[in-house]
Structures are given as C-alpha cells and as structure tokens.
Amino acid sequence: MSLRVTGGSGEETLSYADTGGNTRAIDPTGPQAAKTEASPATPSTVRQFSGKLTADGTLTLQSSDGELGRWAFAIIPDKPPQIRFVGEPKRAVNGAFELNYQIDDDYGAASAKAVFALADPQVPNAHPLYGPPEMPLTLPRRGSKANAAKTTKDLTDHVWAGGNVKLSLVATDGAGHTATSETKTLVMPERPFSNPLTRAVVEQRRILALDAYAKDRVLDLMDAITLRPEDTFDNMAHYLAIMSARTRLKMADSDDQLRDEVAYLWEIALGIEEGNLSAAEKRLRQAQQALQDAIKNGASDQEIEKAMKELREAMNQFLQEFAARAQQNPNAPQMQQNGQELRQSDIDRMMDQIENLAKSGNRDQAQQLLSELQDMMNNLQAGRQQQGGQQDSEMRQQMDKLGEIMRRQQEMMNDTFRMDQMQRGQQQRGQNRDEQLGENGEPGPMGEEGKPGPGDDRDPLGRPKPMTPQEFADALKQLQEGQGKLQGELDQLRKSLEGMGLDPNEGFGEAGKSMGNAEQALGEGEGDQAVGHQGRALEALRRGAKDMMKQLQAMQGDQGGNGQGGRQQNADRDPLGRPRTSEGPDDGSSVRVPDEIDVQRARQILEAIRKRLGNALSPDIERSYLERLLELK
After folding, report:
1. Radius of gyration of the chain (CA)
2. Is 294 within 8 Å of 311 (Cβ atoms)?
3. Crossing angle (nearest 10°) for helices 363-378 and 277-296
4. Which of 14, 171, 327, 411 could be 83's S-S partner, Cβ–Cβ 3.0 to 4.6 Å?
5. Of residues 56, 57, 84, 220, the one with CA closest to residue 149
6. pLDDT at 381
7. 556 and 603 co-located in one domain
8. Is 365 left (phi over 0), alpha (psi -120 to 50) or beta?
C-alpha cells in the first residue's frame, strides 16, 4: 500500500484496523513535510505513507480536523508456486540439455532454475575446483493455458558432464515463496568424442577439476600419453599443446591457475576433435543466446538487426567449416536432420522470418521460432551415409538439377514476357508518333525518328530507352539459344533418371515439347506465343517433379523395411517440417509461423500506437500506457 497526501497540514496520520479489531499506525516515509515555492504565504506540504497489508481491514487517514479518508481492503493470500517435470530430461544429438516443465502460480512465477548435485561418490577430503552448473529456466509465456515451458542449454563443457547427477527444479514467485519439483537422477549429457586422444585429455581434465589434490596423478597420465609421440599423435601440434599444458600444470600452485589449466585442457580437446569447428559452434551458440535475450528484453529494431547480423555471420561460419570438412574427407559426417539433408536456404529463410516477426512486434512468435531453430541446430545428426547413400546422393543431385531447370525456365519466361511487352510498347509509341507527324508535319521534341537524346536511358515518361530493331533481334536470339540449351539439359536429365531406375512420366515429354515450341516461337519473333509455351513447359515440369518425388519416397520406403522407420517417416518434409518444394507451389499453410496477415496486423497496431503517441494532446496517463506497450521504458 502506498498513500500520498498533498496540500494538507503535514500532521496527517494513517492507521490500519483489521477485522479482529487490532489497530496499528503506519508511519510516514521520507521527509514528513516538503514545502513548495509556489506560495510562501500558504505553504503546501507533501506526506507519504507506505506499508504492507497482510489481513482484511480498513485504512483510515486522519488530521487535526477529523477523518480525511477511509478505504476497505480484502486481502487474498498469495499461494506458493508449483513446478514439475513434463516428461524426462532429454539430450540432443550434440549433447545439449533439454528440460520440459510446467510452472503454476496465481500471479506468475518471478524466476526459476535447475539445481544440480553430484550423485557419484566422491573421494574423501577431495578439493573440487568447480561447483554445480547454473541453468536458469525460461518462464512460461504469459497467457499460456498449460503454463508449459522449455529450456535448452549446452552444459557439455562443464566438468560434471558425463557423471551421475541429481536434478530438481526450483521456482520462486514475486512474494518470495519457493517450490521444488521431484528429484531425478540421471547422467548429465556430455559432448561425444570419437578420437581416443581427445577422450584421454577430457578424462584428465575431469579428474583434475573434481579434486585439485589429484594434480600429480594427472601429470603421470600426461607423461604416459606423451611417452611415444610418434605412435600416439598424428599431428605434432597436438603433442606440443599437451606438453605445454603439462608444463603449466606443474607450475600451477593456486586454485585459479588450476582452473585456467582445466579450461586449457578443454580447448585442447576441442582442437584435436573438431579443429576450427568448435570455435564456430561456440560463436553460433553465443549469437543465438544474444538474440534470444534481445527479443526477451524488448530490444529496439536496431539492436534486433545487430543481433541478427551476428547470428547470420556465425551460422555461415559454422556451415562453411562443416562443408569444408566434408569436402576434405568424403566419409565425413553430413549435415542432416531426422535423416534428411539440411540446406542453408532453409536456415536463411527461417532467420529472415525471425527478424521480420521481431521487428513487427510479434516477439512471442519470434522467440518461439528462434527456439525451434536452436532445437534444429542442437539435433543435427552427423550421421555417415549408410548403404545406398551414394545412390541417394546422386538422386538428390539430379533432383537439384531439376529444380535448377525449373528456376531457369521461370526466369526465361519472365524475360520473354518483358521483351514482348517492350516490343508492343515501342510499336504503340511509333503509331502515336506517326499520328502526330501527320497532323503538323514536324518531329516531336524527342528528336529525329523519336529517339531519345544522347545519354538518355529513359523517355520523358520514365520508360526504358527503346531498343533498336537490331538490339531487339539479338535479345530474342539469345532467349532462343537459352531455351534450346535448357531443352537439351532436360533431355539429359531424363536419361540420367532412367539410368537410376526411375521412370520419368509424360510430364517431362510434354515439357520438352513445349520448350521446343517456345524456341521456335522466339525464332519467329512471336513473344506472346513463346510465353504461353514456356508456361506450359513449367507446369509440366512441376508435374514431373511431383511424380519423381513419389517414386523416390517409394524407393526409400522399400529400403526402410516395413515403411515405418528410416527416412520414409519424414520423406515428404524438409528439416523444418514443411513439404518439399518440388511437390508443387508451397502456400505456407503447414509452416508453424504466423501468416502474413498476422504480421501486417501487428505492423498496423504499432503504427497506430506511434501515431497516438505523436498527438501532443494525449493525456499523460494514456501516453505512459502506450509507452509501456512499446516497451520504451
């Protein structure tokens, strides 16, 4: 409760009487009387009271002249929050820790966190260098019916990773009440390492981190690893790094220096296992977290744009280094999600949608989509191609070629349409010029023959500079040659698909025939007819692509046995859960992001708020409310 009295005598008193008849006085806070300079003859005073009400009762304000005010309060006791696990804690493929939980509170929890404790027996009198990991939990979104939430965090770099831990969840509300969930015992997710040398370094790091007194034992283990370097190390830089770590460990004589050594051993392990990819992956996680914090804290559009730029750069670096490794080693893992190849264009499209949602004011949906992006990156499967993988790769390459042919056919149809419209526009302008010359017998201001002046790229109406007949003929010839080349590539693709056991349907034949008709029409200068043939070719290509996808799905289902497992389960969708683009035009109905009309409505609401704020006659209370809506304060 807070009460402010202005213009009084400065001697007012405040008391609170509960329903049991107990009355207590509430003392004023701050200066008891603050005189203003408005009128020295009749000074005004300000008196302020504040206190906490814990039971039903009546608040009474009195002065020397009698009672000034009376207010009755009904106090609703605050209930403690409740928190529980929803399902079991999960481990992503890359080791990230995922928790699903539910938090219930009458006014909404103020904070929540995961609490860890070691479950493995420890060495007596051990001196650990690190405490339990910290994992704050994301609170449920306001208005959510289920009060469910999810938090994902990479804890694989913590020294407890790989050990048995006891996990419980703790939630705290605004009144300070806390609640604790049940305790689960599980193995804390650790980063998977395939290199034996890396696993040895990580083991030494863990031993040292759990007990500083084990320093001599770790030194002995390092001596054993480096005893015969020519048999142990493929890269002498790794040998030098471990020798450097040994020297640093031998000279360390404080806990801080030992912790620096633990961190150094982790960097060595990542360098041996992943090379530069580890640094790129770390930067990617940091960029994702920075963007999540910016959206959550209501950052400005400029801050959102800056965070998105860093995320894009980190994502590109990660994907480039992953691709470089795959090129150097044909047997290296491939970027996959649920058994399907993950394309950079899918990720770029998803990040564009996140930025648009955040800037349009729909930040809850932006945060949800960012969470899906994090889950997708956490669960990337670095699986090696199994039997038949080479054939699957060739099929994907052929389908990519088909997609490229469709894209080029679309561009060629657009170019043909523009050329045809330009030709019609020039003919119309020529007829108008002839009519004008027939009236007055003089050329117009454009000069002789209606041509624009030297150096002009557009006419007075802003239209492109007219092409000469020779330039127009050359442009049509180029389109004709390009159409013929595209038809040849389609015939070659059809033969390749037949060689892989696929049966191209009649759609490819119709597409080839329409391409030939378009080439002939272009040679005769009939742009309108060429556009029609090109449109029919594009439609036939789409039907052929859809049929090829069905055949590929059937083949993959046969390889998956009973058709319930393998890639058949998700063969008709990309890593983001959307239908494959080769199945026809994607209307976006299956993408779990807001429709464009929702984004447009959010923009309109934001513009209306900003316009209202610009009205100087708006009341202060309304302006304060609108500013809170925009999160400017």
Report:
1. 36
2. no
3. 160
4. 171
5. 84
6. 43
7. no
8. alpha
Contact partners, residue 7, CB within 8 Å, separation at least 6: 44, 45
Q: Which of 437, 430, 436 has the alpha carbon at shortest distance from 451? A: 430
| Residue bearing the bigger pLDDT, 262 or 473 | 262
**Distance from C-alpha of 472 to C-alpha of 470, rounded to nearest angstrom:** 5
Question: Is residue 489 domain-shared with residue 602, that is, in the same domain?
Answer: no
Both 30 and 124 in one domain: the answer is: no
User: Cα–Cα distance between 453 and 449 in angstroms, integer?
Assistant: 11
Looking at the fold, whether 9 and 137 belong to one and the same domain comes out as no
Residues 399 and 471 placed together within one structural domain of the fold: yes
Residue 111 near residue 104 (C-beta atoms within 8 A)? no
Confidence of residue 218 (pLDDT cuts 50, 70, 90): very high
Q: Please, what is the average pLDDT of the chain?
A: 76
**Residue 455: pLDDT above 60?**
no
528 — pLDDT class (breaks 50, 70, 90): confident
Residue 444 in any domain: the answer is no
Burial of 241 (0-12, 13-18, 19+ CB in 10 A): buried
115 part of a folded domain: yes
d(CA 490, CA 541): 10
| Lowest-confidence pick of 210-214, 428-432, 462-466 | 462-466
Residue at which a domain ends, from 27, 44, 73:
73
- Indicate whether this model's pTM tops 0.70: no
In this structure, the answer to whether residues 175 and 273 fall within a common structural domain is: no
pLDDT at 609: 78
Q: What is the CATH number of the domain that holds 177?
A: 2.60.40.10
For residues 504 and 484, give the distance between their C-alpha atoms in angstroms, rounded to a whole number: 20
Whether residue 14 is found in the same domain as residue 43: yes
Residue pair 362/603 in contact by the 8 Å Cβ criterion? no
Statement: residue 419 has pLDDT above 60: yes
Q: What is the pLDDT of residues 387-400, one digit of tens each?
A: 344 455 667 677 77
Q: Which of 73, 102, 118 is the last residue of a domain?
A: 73
Q: What is the CATH number of the domain that holds 516?
A: 1.20.120
Residue from 372, 328, 330 nearest 150 by CA: 372
Strand partners, 66: 63
| Residue 14 placed within a domain | yes
121 shares a domain with 68? no
> Is the Cα torsion angle 551, 556, 559, 560 positive or negative in sign?
negative
The alpha carbon dihedral of 278, 280, 286, 291 has a sign of negative
Please report the pLDDT score of residue 389 as a whole number.
44
Angle (CA) 39 45 50, round 5°: 155
Mention every residue, 6+ apart, whose C-beta is less than 8 A from residue 499.
none
* pLDDT of amino acid 136: 92
Number of domains in the chain: 5
Residue with the bigger pLDDT between 81 and 359: it is 81
Lowest mean pLDDT, pick from 199-208, 261-270, 281-290, 495-504: 495-504
Domain that holds residue 601: 597-629
Length of the chain: 633
**Euclidean distance between CA atoms 542 and 511, whole angstroms:** 9
Comparing C-alpha atoms, which of 426, 538, 540, 409 is closest to residue 479?
409
Percent of the chain with pLDDT over 90: 18
